[in-house]
Amino acid sequence: MINFDYIRMGSISSAVKALDKFPDAKIIAGGSNLIDLMKRNVMAPTKLIDINPLPLKYIHTTKQGVQIGALALNSQAADHELIKTKYPLLSMAINAGASAQLRNMATFGGNMMQRTRCSYFYDTTMPCNKREPNSGCSALTGINRMHGIFGTSDVCIAVNPSDMNVALVALDAKVILKSAKKERTIAFADFHKLAGDSPQLDNHLQKNEMITDIIIPENQFYNNSYYLKVRDRHSYAFALISVAAGLEMDGQNIKKVRLAMGGVAHKPWRLYDAENFLQGKTASLQNFEEAAKIAMKGAKSYGHNDFKLALAPSSIVEALLKASHLS
Amino acid sequence: MSDQKQPETQEKELICSSRRGFLKATTALTAIALSPSLITKAALQHADERLAAFFEKIPLNIEVNGKAYQMETEPRETLLDFVRERLHLTGTKKGCDHGQCGACTVHVDGIRVNSCLTLAVMQEGKKITTIEGIANGDKLHPMQEAFLKNDGFQCGYCTPGQIMSAIACINEGHANSPTEIREFMSGNICRCGAYPNIVDAIVEVKNGGMKL
Ligand SMILES: Cc1cc2nc3c(=O)[nH]c(=O)nc-3n(C[C@H](O)[C@H](O)[C@H](O)COP(=O)(O)OP(=O)(O)OC[C@H]3O[C@@H](n4cnc5c(N)ncnc54)[C@H](O)[C@@H]3O)c2cc1C
Ligand code: SF4
Ligand code: FES
Ligand code: FES
């Protein structure tokens, strides 16, 4: 690992001031993604700003729902009584990711910011527009089994690898971002971006901003939530496809529904059209199959990931059946 | 909303900029001569700043297996390299060095983590427990006993990580069934495939109900 400067911050205000002062510095939280990438020379920041002493480790209820500090651990949330009972979708998604050790290190902010797992992004001997803009995309014509089928661009077809993000986008979460000069709150759905012509940027966080909070509004999905993750082995593997489904039911009638997918796009992918179709309908295999068909409109595969065109809709149906207790 | 946040604490901040000017003037050429090419290339790109940092050591107060240490660490030293290379506690193993195998599992303030993916410098004031720290003198820890009794290993390379992880798995309350144990122990890979016996060992300790 190339050496770097290290500073440790004790308050939010000093952390954002440091971000202002050192535009090339990187925040370090759990370290589980950044240190991995630095060891491989995929990222080589000259300075790390350790934010671990900051008072952002809480998970608590507010008038709007639940507020989670950017330094709360993934394991802390997954095991939290409030999250398990009122937001089980989040708990399920987190526990489907990584390993117990890594979830003990992974913070909410760090998880949101984790980089893609495209193998060419990791391989510094290969062209990759995300790692090195304008060098080319090796995945387009290479091994692209893990890659995207929605909203891809002709310069990058990588996917966002996080499980937590899929649940948070389904749950209409919001994010608070703070810089030395201002604080803004944006929808979680607007945090990550598509690759477009700037694949080097995964999201809309400005260089001088940090994530301080995630807010999940109250919902009634807790009896009918399911996170389905399809992967190469049963545990400790990234998703080929994942589906987060939350339903609010009135008998067999779907009052409200939230659906999102992982492993398919450069950002956690909400299935708005499928949601609109299901709203007010009866929970049934037929309706779920129709919703999956709607969700797949515009999907495009790249060779090795052709299987996702079949796996994705059947995963959507399966997640909905599980969430509505029909299977 | 923001009024519900905890107040900002005034914990000690650490800003290291100490010897930069001096190092800039004196050691740049030596560093280039000694560094592998990659470091040299990066160093040249970022000029003197990074070369200076290359030599910077930061004080570290850390407790390992009940013993307090006052040491210095280079920012890039991982906790794993620190315990193995600096404290010579080589029970903790380096398998993949990338968070993929669990051989390096240690406890930080009682919580299991992969020591290869955290920096020593980030552990200021923390209490670390490694495999060397769990026995009570000559008396093995119940999990060590159970691994022996159940043949929870073959070559033994993954075993320190498995045992540290297993103790935490029970303490976290995630050892209530073999299925749950398998899921919450998935971060520890065993190339010898001792998995069934590892699960048996954990079940036995869990059923024993001892405080770990
Ligand atoms: C072997 C392995 C398997 C894994 N499997 C999965 C999986 O199946 N599913 C899954 O979802 N994840 C998986 N992960 C990834 C894991 O979830 C991430 O590494 C973790 O969430 C990153 O969090 P962190 O706090 O350690 O981030 P760090 O490594 O500390 O930081 C990551 C990035 O976030 C930035 N950052 C951190 N906090 C903030 C903040 N508050 N504001 C702004 N920027 C910030 C940092 O600057 C850095 O760029 C796996 C990781 C490994 C190593
Ligand atoms: S898909 Fe994106 S991350 Fe992967 S090689 Fe292409 S540009 Fe790089
Ligand atoms: S050496 Fe740390 S997980 Fe493999
Ligand atoms: S005992 Fe050999 S790797 Fe587990």
What are its keywords?
heterodimer, A: 327 residues, alpha+beta, Enolase-like, domain 1, four-stranded antiparallel sheet, 12 helices, 28% helix, B: 212 residues, Ubiquitin-like (UB roll), DNA polymerase, domain 1, 2 domains, five-stranded mixed sheet, 9 helices, binds flavin-adenine dinucleotide, binds iron/sulfur cluster, binds FE2/S2 (inorganic) cluster, flavoprotein (chain A), CO_DH_flav_C_dom_sf (chain A), FAD binding (chain A)
Explain how this protein is built.
Chain A: InterPro entries: CO_DH_flav_C, CO_DH_flav_C_dom_sf, Diverse_Substr_Oxidored, FAD-bd_PCMH, FAD-bd_PCMH-like_sf, FAD-bd_PCMH_sub1, FAD-bd_PCMH_sub2, Mopterin_DH_FAD-bd. Chain A: Pfam families: CO_deh_flav_C, FAD_binding_5. The complex is a heterodimer of chains A (327) and B (212). Chain A is of the alpha+beta class and 327 residues long. Chain A has a five-stranded antiparallel sheet with strand order 4-5-8-6-7. Chain A contains twelve helices and twelve strands. Chain A has a domain of 99 residues: CO dehydrogenase flavoprotein, C-terminal domain (Enolase-like, domain 1, 2-Layer Sandwich), CATH 3.30.390. In chain A, 28% of the residues lie in helices and 20% in strands. Chain B has 212 residues and is of the alpha+beta class. Chain B folds into two domains: 115 residues, Roll (Ubiquitin-like (UB roll)), CATH 3.10.20; 67 residues, Orthogonal Bundle (DNA polymerase, domain 1), CATH 1.10.150.120. Chain B is built from nine helices and six strands; from the N terminus they run E-H-H-H-H-E-E-H-E-E-E-H-H-H-H. Chain B has a five-stranded mixed sheet, sandwiched between helices. In chain B, helix 1 packs across helix 4, helix 3 crosses helix 4 and helix 6 packs across helix 9. Chain B is globular and about 45 Å long. The two termini of chain B are 40 Å apart. The N terminus of chain B is likely disordered. Chains A and B meet through strand 1, helix 1, helix 2, helix 6 and strand 8 of A and strand 1, helix 3, helix 4, strand 5 and helix 7 of B. The complex binds flavin-adenine dinucleotide, iron/sulfur cluster (SF4) and FE2/S2 (inorganic) cluster (FES) (2 copies). Flavin-adenine dinucleotide (FAD) binds next to strand 2, helix 2, helix 6, helix 7 and strand 8 of chain A.
